[in-house]
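Revision sheet: structure tokens.
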Amino acid sequence: MTTGKWTSGACAIALDRDRKIAEQVIRVADHYPRGADGRHADGYDLAVLETCERFLPLVSDDSRYWNILAAAWIAGGSSVYAERWATLFRASRPKRERLMKGADRRTHARIPKRVTAYRGCREGEDADRCLAWSLSLSVAERFATMYGTGVVEVRTFPRERVLVYWTRRGEGEIIVLPEVMG
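Predicted:
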């Protein structure tokens, strides 16, 4: 976490370490090629998560922590490991808004007091423990079809529970941290 005054040398060392951590997350992502269906090989999501758990606490700059976490989730986040990802999203660091780019931050700020969201579920998945939801019914239906279940869950969340809004993958994705996990 960024505290106190930094000398230019210490700052350069911290920036270099943060850059290397971001590169490590990217290397993990590059190690798992995508199949013909566009999905990564088994183990990809766990490898990305474990890399984040190992290295993100070492990131010195709060903005960079959130930027790297956002990139990692978008690259390989999975509600299969919801409790572990939620721990990273709950980090007690300032600048959490840096999970989003400027346009997404502006949209997030305009989310109504209550928002309806959708999730295409896997077989046996407990939607109430999942982090990722879409504001688009058609996106949730696509995931439900991809998972072979055809099950779409619908929830209404208070704005305060919506941590993130992303458009990067064209999913209208929001991250909602479950109230109670474990």
